[in-house]
Design brief:
The protein is α/β, with parallel strands linked by helices. Helices cover about 45% and strands about 15% of the residues. The protein has 14 helices and twelve strands. A four-stranded parallel beta sheet has the order 2-1-3-4, with helices on both faces. α4 crosses α14. The protein is globular and about 50 Å long. The chain binds iron/sulfur cluster. Iron/sulfur cluster (SF4) binds next to loops.
Length: about 300
């Protein structure tokens, strides 16, 4: 084992730490993690681990989510500037104003949101269970969906529900264009196009499958196809190749890279474990309210 990885193993034992990595993390970070997954899988893992320290290789809202679910644990984000532009597209005050405009509506917030916004929401959801969460809500209720208008419109299409969309979006997924998909299809006509619901509507419309990253991994495992065009952040291709090495994976575009996800490095993971930084904490009042919306989400698993 290489010296850096040996050091991480030693520090993990000393600290009683577990390392969680999102599917968009650099390949070497996914390889050293104890658990890799999408936001839903990581949220569940964070809520049930016995470790005292959680090193979250992802972006700030994910570490905040772990801190909300595991108040007795130390949650670390190895790079303090790793944020999510989409999560920052709505503030708690903006959400309060939206709620005042639609009294009685149910607020569903994508897990890619700040703790303050989660605390103002009724339900959280991830891209894996957004449809199941909205389907579970009373049919006569209007739904306010924040912050991702693309995931929100995907949910509206699938559920037929009356949904008010907040105009947020993922700055990485909107880099994937309809033209990218058409060109890739021309070059590889036998490939299955798998797109993430954070992609824009024109991209979603011409895709074969709309799946979260966790669902992509499951889909490929069951499918007999040998080639896939992947329309989401490129990091998932590392996980797809690792789990299903016999198929070929083509990124819809080389531009689909989230710069924040790529800020985590092996050296930063070591520094994080050595110095117990950057500690992510959430104000207790906000945490308790945000946890209610996360708990309601964790109860509703997708049907796949
Ligand atoms: S891929 Fe998009 S939604 Fe995910 S962290 Fe990056 S900017 Fe945020």
């Amino acid at each position: 084992m290489d010296a850096a990885l040996e050091k991480i193993e030693r520090l993990k034992r000393e600290r009683n730490a577990v390392i969680l990595a999102h599917n968009y993390q650099p390949g070497e970070i996914q390889d050293l993690a104890d658990f890799c997954g999408d936001s839903l899988g990581l949220s569940i893992e964070a809520s049930k681990t016995d470790a005292k320290v959680i090193v979250f290789c992802g972006v700030r809202f994910m570490a905040e989510t772990a801190a909300i679910l595991s108040p007795g644990k130390t949650v670390l984000l190895p790079e303090k500037t790793a944020g999510c532009p989409m999560a920052d597209m709505i503030t708690a005050e903006q959400l309060r104003q939206l709620k005042a405009k639609y009294p009685g509506a149910i607020v569903v917030c994508y897990v890619n949101s700040t703790a303050d916004v989660k605390a103002e929401s009724d339900y959280c959801c991830t891209s894996s269970n957004a449809v199941a969460v909205v389907d579970s809500l009373p049919a006569d209720k209007k739904i306010l969906f924040v912050p991702d208008r693309n995931l929100g419109s995907f949910v509206a299409e699938r559920t037929g529900r009356d949904i008010e969309l907040w105009p947020g979006y993922c700055t990485t997924h909107v880099c994937i264009t309809e033209d990218d998909i058409r060109k890739a299809r021309q070059k590889w006509p036998d490939a299955i196009v798998m797109s993430h619901p954070e992609c824009t509507e024109p991209v979603r419309k011409i895709s074969d499958e709309l799946l979260s990253t966790g669902q992509m991994l499951k889909f490929v495992k069951k499918s007999s196809a040998k080639r896939y065009i992947v329309a989401t952040e490129k990091g998932i291709i590392h996980a797809l190749r690792k789990e299903n090495p016999d198929a070929e994976y083509i990124p819809a575009t080389e531009r689909a890279i989230c710069p924040n996800m790529k800020k985590i490095t092996i050296d930063k993971v070591i520094a994080s474990l050595e110095e117990l930084k950057e500690r992510i904490t959430v104000d207790e009042q906000i945490r308790v309210k945000a946890k209610e919306s996360l708990d309601r989400m964790i109860e509703i698993l997708p049907s796949d």
